[in-house]
Amino acid sequence: MKFKTIPILILLLAIQLPVLAGQPQEESRRNITANNLSGPLLEVHFLDVGQGDSMYVRTPGGKHYLIDAGPRSARKKIIPYLRYLKVEKLDGVFITHSHMDHMGSLLYILKEFPVARFYYPGYFHTSATNKKVAALLEQTKTEVHEVRRGDTIELDEGVAAVALHPPKKGWEPFDDDLNNFSLVLRLTYGDVDFLLTGDAEEKSEKEILQSKMVLRSEFLKIGHHGSRTATSEEFLEAVFPLYAVVSAGVKNSFGHPHDVVLKRLRDRDITILRTDDSGTIGVYTDGKRIMIKIKGKDWLPVSWFIRTRTPGSTWVIVNKEGGSYA
Questions:
Q1: 26, 148, 184, 267: which has the fewest Cβ within 10 Å?
Q2: Does 20 fall in a domain?
């Protein structure tokens, strides 16, 4: 698949930037809202859940999905956030792997929202919490689907999630290496793609590269919270993202994201979006253009921005205080 250059607008708080070479002139940077996008929108919200992962997806047809459920403490953020967005039921929940920073709040979410379908890579760590989750899924008669490479889940008309990892055969789960049994998904809508990697590390990345599946994506959710054990040079070259999203806790004890990963991203002119810096990050797309809303810790909008990628040029994301994110 050829990489697509996406015309993108930008609005930054209280500043005006000079026009960069190659920027579309017909697009105004004033008074930009989601209404500037044409057609039904796909929304992908990278939730600020501290040291963990959770994403909310709303399809153009109004279907609701959750990808990972963060740590146990994240229930106090995820559930109110979904209520705020007027979510009454979830059409599907994906769990990339059964570490508690990805599914710690799942039991609470299953009790709060009816869930139509549950997707996972086919293995649960045998913890007491996971046993309760499995029992509740059975009790509520939720459809359970094992997802492996090559499987395609149609989330809505025109929106698909393609599984890239783990493979169907020859890749067994181990309790001490669950990161590398992460479900890796490529979410597609029109010309805009999101590669969501769970905690997959370089071992998985090499295997994915060998599979020769399509990886190019505008958004890359960085593996394992920005750990140096993931996001290899070769993987970045294959994905060639415009944006990298890091989900990590403020001043977490692991030091995520690691400097070596941030340097790899900066060296490739990839805009870095971090939940530990910006809070929840909302991406809105009509399948061609992209808008990104950075939200503060209180869930209020901080800024809209849209960036056009031109060789050697990068838009700077400016926060309310006038500082900038790398």
A1: 26
A2: no
Q: Which domain holds residue 70?
A: 40-307
* CATH (domain of 56): 3.60.15.10
**What are the tens digits of pLDDT across the range 67-100?**
999 999 999 999 999 999 999 999 999 999 887 7
Count of domains forming the chain: 1
Residue 11 lies in a domain: no
pLDDT digits (tens, 9 = 90+) for 284-314: 888 888 888 886 443 333 344 544 444 333 3
Task: Kindly state whether residue 175 falls inside one of the protein's structural domains.
Answer: yes
Residue 259 structure tokens:
């400097």
